[in-house]
C-alpha cells in the first residue's frame, strides 16, 4: 500500500509567518537556524535537519537496496518510483526525529545533480514545493560538493589546502580545496567509478548488490598477492583514474576459473578461497590506484590534509592504507563515518548552508541537472 504523506504541522505558511519570512532577508538567517536537506540522486531517499550548519539533528536514509538487489544494480525507473513513495514519510521522519516543526526550518537545500534524472526530479520537485509553501529560501547543491562537505561535518577545522577524493558508485574524482568552499578538480575517472567496478566484479561472482561491502568482507580472508592485476597508469602522466582495465582482468580470471554466477545474486553461500583471493587482489589494485593518485595530487598542491568521502570510503583496507600513508608523510587523513560516507541528506544540508550564508539561493525554476559539474 502506498505511504500517505501527512506533513509534520501545517505545510502552508500562515499569514503571520509569510509576513515574517518576507521581512527576513537571507543574511538575517540566524547562525543557529535549521536547514532541511533532501537527497534523491540515486537509490537512497534521504532527508536531514542540520542546525547552525554543523549539528546533525536528524539524518534519515531510506535505502532501496532490496528493490535493486535482484537486478544486480540500480534500475532507474524503479528508483524514481520508490523515491516518490518514500520522500514524504522520510521528510516527516527527519522533522520528527529532530524535534522540530516547519516553523523551525529556515531554508531547504536539495541535490540538483549529478545523478539519475528521474530520481533527482523527485527531490527537486519536493524541495521546490516546500520552499514555495513555506516561503523559504531554496538552495540547489552539487552532490559531489555534498560528499566533500561530509568530512567537514565530522571535523570542521580541516587544515587547508587539502585534497579531497570523492569515491563512490557513480564518481571517482580528486579536488583541491584551497579555501573554504572553493573546489578545483584535479582528476576524474575516464571510465568506471571505483564503486561501480567493485559492484560489477561482485555481480559476475553472484555476490549480490551492492558489491563493495561484500568484496571488502571476503577480501579480509584472501591473499592480495594471489591474482596479478596490472598497475594502472595514464600514458600522459595525468592524475585521472581508470578502472575498466582492472574490471576486465577480473572478468577474464572469473571466466578462466569458471567462477561466473548464473544470476547476479546466486553466488556460492560460502565462496571458495579462490574467490576470497580474487576479492583481496582486486581490492588491493583499486586501493593502490586511489592512493597513488591522491598522494601525488597532495604533493603537487602542497596539501596539509587528505579527505576521503563517498560510499567506497567505507572500505576498511582503503582507510587503513590511507591512514598509514598519510601519517608517514605528516598529513592528516579524514574519513566520515560510514553513515556519512554513503549518500545522505546531512551532507547536502551542510553544503546548502554554505551557499545560503553566501546568499547563493535558487529560484523556483531550479531544475534537476543529471550532468552537473563541480
Ligand atoms: O556514495 P554512495 O552511497 O552512492 C553513490 O553516490 O554512488 O556509494 C555507493 C558505492 C557502491 O558502489 C558500493 O559498492 C560502494 O559505494 N561501497 C563500498 C563499500 N561500501 C560501499 N565499496 C568498497 N568497500 C566498501 N566497504
Ligand atoms: Zn554519492
3D structure, described in words:
The chain is of the alpha/beta class. It folds into two domains: 15-149 and 342-357, Nucleotidyltransferase, domain 5, CATH 3.30.420; 160-303, Nucleotidyltransferase, domain 5 (2-Layer Sandwich). Helices cover 42% and strands 17% of the residues. The chain is built from twelve helices and ten strands. It has helices at 15-22, 65-68, 76-98, 117-134, 143-154, 194-204, 211-219, 244-256, 273-301, 316-328, 338-341, 345-357; strands spanning 34-39, 44-51, 55-63, 105-113, 138-142, 162-167, 172-177, 183-188, 305-309, 332-334. The strands form two sheets. Strands 3-2-1-4-5 form a five-stranded mixed beta sheet, with helices on both faces. Strand 6 (162-167) and strand 7 (172-177) form a beta hairpin. Helix 6 (194-204) runs parallel beside helix 8. The chain is globular. It starts with 14 loop residues before the first helix and ends in a 17-residue tail after the last helix.
Give me the CATH superfamily of the largest domain: ATPase, nucleotide binding domain
Q: Looking at CATH, which topology of the largest domain would you report?
A: Nucleotidyltransferase, domain 5
Named CATH architecture of the largest domain:
2-Layer Sandwich
Distance between the termini: 39 Å
Q: What general form does the structure show? A: globular
Amino acid at each position: 500500500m502506498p505511504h500517505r504523506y501527512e506533513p509534520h504541522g501545517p505545510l502552508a505558511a500562515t499569514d503571520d509567518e509569510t509576513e515574517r519570512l518576507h521581512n527576513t532577508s537571507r543574511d538575517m538567517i540566524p547562525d543557529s537556524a535549521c536547514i532541511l536537506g533532501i537527497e534523491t540522486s540515486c537509490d537512497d531517499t534521504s532527508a536531514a535537519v542540520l542546525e547552525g550548519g554543523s549539528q546533525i539533528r536528524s539524518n534519515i536514509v531510506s535505502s532501496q537496496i532490496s528493490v535493486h538487489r535482484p537486478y544486480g544494480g540500480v534500475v532507474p525507473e524503479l528508483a524514481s518510483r520508490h523515491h516518490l513513495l518514500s520522500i514524504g514519510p522520510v521528510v516527516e521522519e527527519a522533522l520528527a526525529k529532530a524535534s522540530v516543526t516547519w516553523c523551525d526550518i529556515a531554508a531547504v537545500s536539495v541535490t540538483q545533480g549529478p545523478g539519475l534524472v528521474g530520481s533527482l526530479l523527485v527531490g527537486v520537485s519536493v524541495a521546490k514545493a516546500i520552499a514555495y509553501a513555506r516561503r523559504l529560501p531554496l538552495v540547489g547543491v552539487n552532490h559531489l560538493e555534498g560528499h566533500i562537505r561530509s568530512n567537514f561535518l565530522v571535523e570542521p577545522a580541516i587544515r587547508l589546502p587539502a585534497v579531497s577524493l570523492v569515491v563512490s558508485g557513480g564518481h571517482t574524482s580528486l579536488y583541491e580545496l584551497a579555501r573554504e568552499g572553493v573546489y578545483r578538480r584535479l582528476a576524474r575517472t575516464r571510465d568506471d567509478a571505483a564503486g561501480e567496478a567493485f559492484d560489477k566484479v561482485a555481480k559476475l561472482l553472484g555476490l549480490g548488490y551492492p558489491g563493495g561491502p561484500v568484496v571488502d568482507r571476503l577480501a579480509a580472508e584472501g591473499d592480495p598477492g594471489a591474482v596479478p592485476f596490472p598497475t594502472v597508469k595514464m600514458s600522459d602522466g595525468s592524475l585521472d583514474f581508470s578502472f575498466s582495465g582492472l574490471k576486465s582482468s577480473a572478468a577474464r580470471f572469473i571466466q578462466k576459473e569458471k567462477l561466473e554466477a548464473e544470476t547476479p545474486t546466486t553466488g556460492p553461500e560460502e565462496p571458495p578461497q579462490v574467490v576470497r583471493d580474487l576479492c583481496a587482489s582486486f581490492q588491493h589494485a583499486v586501493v593502490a590506484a586511489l592512493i597513488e593518485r591522491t598522494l601525488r595530487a597532495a604533493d603537487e598542491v602542497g596539501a596539509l590534509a587528505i579527505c576521503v568521502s563517498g560510499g567506497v570510503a567505507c572500505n576498511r583496507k582503503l582507510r587503513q592504507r590511507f591512514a598509514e600513508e598519510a601519517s608517514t608523510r605528516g598529513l592528516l587523513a579524514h574519513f566520515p563515518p560510514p553513515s556519512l560516507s554513503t549518500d545522505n541528506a546531512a551532507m547536502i544540508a551542510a553544503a546548502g548552508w554554505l551557499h545560503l550564508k553566501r546568499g547563493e539561493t535558487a529560484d523556483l525554476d531550479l531544475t534537476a541537472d543529471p550532468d552537473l559539474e563541480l
